[in-house]
Amino acid sequence: MLKRSYCLLRSTSFSLFHRNRPSISHQSWMTTVATNDVDWSLASSGLAPPYSIYNKPIQKSEQDDRDYRIIRLENGLHATLIHDANADKAAASLDVAVGHLYDPADMPGLAHFCEHLLFMGTEQFPKENEYSEYLAKNNGSANAYTSTSNTNYYFNVATPALAGALERFAGFFHSPLFAPSCTTRELNAVDSEHKKNHQADIWRIFQLNKHLSKEGHPWSKFGSGSKETLSKAAKLLKARGLLLEDNVLSRSREAASATSSRISSPTLSITSTDNDTEADGGAIGRETRRRLLEWWSHEYCASRMRLCVIGKESVDELSELTSILFSPIPNRGCDALPMISDHPFGPNEKGTLVSVQTVMSFHALEISFPLAWQPPSWRHKPANFLSFLLGHEGAGSLHSYLKKKGWITSLNSQPQNLARGFAMFKVTVHLTEDGFQHHRDVIHAAFQYISLLRASKFDAFHQHEIAKVSDIKFRFKEKRRPDEYATSITEYMSWPVPKDLILKAPAVTWDWDSATGENEVRKCLETFRITEGRVVLMATAAEHAKITSTDVIWEKEPWYGTSYRVERFDEQFINKAEAPNAISELFLPGPNEFIPTDLQVDRRIVTEPLKRPHLIRETPLSTLWHKKDDHFFVPKAHVVIDIRSPVVNETARAAVMTKLYADVVNDSLTEYSYAADLAGLSYNFMSHTNGLYISIHGYNDKLSMLVRKILETMKGLSVDPQRFDIIKEQNQREWRNFFLGQSYTLSDYFGRYLLTADQWLLEEKLKELSSITPNEIQIHIKQLLSQVNLRMLVAGNIYRDEALKIADIAEDGMGISSLSAMELNDRALLLPQGSNHTWTCPIPNPNQANSSLTYYVHFGPIADQKLRVVSSLLTQILSEPAFNVLRTQEQLGYVVQCGPWMLAGSSEKGMRIVVQSEKTPGYLEERVESFLDGMKSTIENLSEVEVAEQKGGLERKWLEKDKNLADETSYFVNQITTGHLDFLRRENDARLLRSVTKNDVLDLFLSCVHPSSATRSKLSVHMISQKTRPKKVSVAASQAFDVLLREAGVKFDAETWKKSLGDEKPLATDFINYWKQVLEIEPNAARLLSAIPEFVERYPVPGESKDVPRSNVTYINDIKAFKTSLAESVDPGPMVQWGDLPMSRC
Question: I want to staple 79 with a disulfide (CB 3.0 to 4.6 A). Which of 112, 213, 307, 533 is the partner?
Fold first, then answer.
């Protein structure tokens, strides 16, 4: 995904290693020898190539029980190795210091294309899904992203499988296949990814900002790439007659591999092919691949690579494993960390206002200032200091002033390292409708605050607070997902910081110990001037029309077609913006009362941590669960209060009022809670189908203060009419914008709606929204709080007595619900047995090219443990092949997912496959069902070893340890809010899993999943793109034309046109133009050419014509009537009776 002389044949030494890899043991012989660099020692053993060890200890958090080592291989690759004795999940990340800014000028997207193809097999493991299949069987997963200056590859896997995963992973970087059979398919994948983003404003505006760079700057490059941009250079060569049809260089690598990497789809479609000659894209595809090999062979250099490996093995073992597996990567003598020090803003880009037309309806303003690359300023982080002040939301802040004016809904500021060598400082403001009309006043206010900063004396406590909070955060840093941790480390390894500070320097801010720190801030501030920056104003075309004249000329950004215009700020406005601050409401923040001072942790010695919370209080109004932390030992706590009420969702209007209530509470708390958030104490207050949800988490020292304030605000809320109107406006925009989002989110939305008992459509909510008044909200609040049931959890470094006090505060002033706790749970709607339903709907966005399919099959109630376990195993078995077949092989689209789907209330489950594609949903459903049909024989032919591997992977997933307090709390919360209280489900299910057989899986598959089943319950949602696509010539249409030409006596070579057009399914216009030239001297040319459009219509490309209704499907015409016809799920209630009450003090 985009995040935005070496022989390609493997070396003999590595070949021998691969065939007979020696085991790594604690007893392996190793010696260390001092090198010329005093900080490094040379290590060598009988097993691995020599490498150097960094001698200084790595500074880490006091909380961190892991061992760290940094090594440097002889090829220049640096690696951070982490031994975690308690890990049950291993991971690795490798960061390459080149990204899309290093694409050749004539091949935009090449770095991204390279990232895609590296996953498609290596010489040691040629099967293209070998890597993903191995990870899937071992509770693992992988991904990658291409950024501006780096490309990062990462995976996670069960700890026993680390060596095997690393072996497969390392081949990406020294002996990838770049199999010709994958060229066309991965070009399509890159193209599909670009088209997925084409209507997303975040991508459109990102690229526009890049486009508006000074001429020739690499920042302007189009990093995502498309099939066209990656093929264009080859097409130009071909057009000039410079491209050989059988290029020897492009064939050489194919000859190096005796077998194809391709494993055939079990159910081939017309879009899937086993012919490597066709899949390599012909001469154009081969030239594109040759350029890729050329680029990879130059840019992917060992000295540019930073590796992090996390495992249970000792650092000695990890060092040897790393040296053996990654030493074959060649050092090509490249600059280890190429820098682009020139900033993309030149004189023409500065001092400008760029107006941008958006797809979605919103108003926003972004002020950008050129900034030096920030990693060299790692000690004092001056840009972060300015971000703290400019983005502050407390009293006296820019945010507070603009909010009181009614001009904004949010404001944030931050530095962004755009690429290695240059950065940007951004202030982003989301405007109200009135704020958009006053956007120049908003800009002026921002520069007034900057003037205030330039004129102010910074109190010592400002930097001291930032430093103190960062130090506390680092000191009590908890573990997280190992692949996320490894990825962050590999990115930071390229920072210019002492290697012993590689963990601490990015995370901690030092106090100003001299004038240096403040001087760095002042230096930045001097560049924050309107003549040095750029302002981008975002809104729809209709909104821009309200503030601009009709004769304004709009330009088009070339890759996304985004409309924009650029104007320079006039001298009068510049002078006004540069004037000293004259807004008296603006002032710097005072000391933060929420910074924790009591960080004591009660470390109780326990044989084994408790696996669940305990019920410590139960009243007619509430239940309170509590668990004193006995595992992670950090001064943090979590408080969750789930408020259920029958009033919340009884009508669409009530549902809207509940949402507005939550939004008004959040809006009222902004100034107060912002200080808490800065100090590491955050909250979330939101509405849900049956109530309100409050979550507070962070350092426990001041947690009760925030809890009390939130509950007092919630109960004593007085609705401000001005802010209320703004919040209504914001909700209206968000709900309307939802339908302009990704197609698959729409099919999932309707799928959820059809299977949920009590849910209102957004259209129903929109009809109610505009007429709701503040007074009506006040009445609704009173009614809601008079009928509630509370489900509470307090967990972490907090005692039972304090938990009880929090419960008292929560209950105070609330009334008891007339419904029981079980009656307040969500209910699902159940499909009839033996049913096959489909709901179709056009996509509202006329420019959205992608359709989507959400395909759901129902398993049954989660209260049935055997069904719950077997269905989980079946879903895991289907998941990886679904991606491999539907996305990788058949290239249906970039978004392909297969996984479990829990219905409303979490009492019923099924499996959902989603595909987003330019193909029609009906065709996608055919391919999904063809895949499922093919999986019948796959499951039947699973060996006992393969079944055991799948079971082992799932068991490891269920028994995987929680990484931190938040992970543990999240699992408890799910059991408490659903009312199931099945806290030991994972352990119990893992135990039952061991007895599950292949026949259990096959029986469930045949009864609930296979398309031929007479008992399965299936629902699909088809979201259909309305965008007209250019007609293509199908294989069948071209064959029909071939027959016509032969019948007419025209002599021709059927392969010539394919080579000339470079596509077996060319655009109809290109096909007609080609044959116009060929048939120019034919007397009946006009008659022959007129047949092409007829053949195109008669024989459409599969998946590109209107779907034909299927006879075995019941199409839903009235969704309300359909829902009424379905039975509601039965809530199982508490699935375990724990008998905790009465209990002693804990």
Answer: 307
